[in-house]
Amino acid sequence: MKKSMVSLSFLLLCITNVVNAQTSAKQIFVELGGPGIASVNYDMRLQKKEDGIGFRIGVGGYSYKDVFGFDSYRTSLFTLPVAVNYLLGKDKRNYFEIGVGATYVSTKNSDSFYEDSQFSSSFGHLHFGYRLQPLNGGFTFRAGITPVFSSYGFIPYYASVSFGYKF
Domain spans of the chain? Predict the structure, then answer.
């Protein structure tokens, strides 16, 4: 999992360097909830303006260990959210954001007495929310509802909140 996170971080850095020559709005943000569960994301407009169509890509996950007597149990989760989004706004600061995307999910459970188990899948997601994005860069804030759907079911009221920096 660490190799995947290092590789994706390197990829995000490369993307940032390539698109730095453009003047479209770009930001990096940390999101809780949403399609990445707990993730670091890169977002960019595809046109040289503050609103309009854009994309996001991120990497997220967590790992924890439980100890029950002589038995220990470790669970790890890795997420890779990718989405296309659109910003609507008139004052160049406050936006309504809509989006659609998919997230790859991989989990691993390790038990000291039993075999390890792994699971990977993907799910689709929508996003409807508010975005505070200053015109000349700086602190950004996002909050919204992110319905998720897969072959396992539909969760209509899954929320997200994020904090970041626009450059």
Answer: 2-166
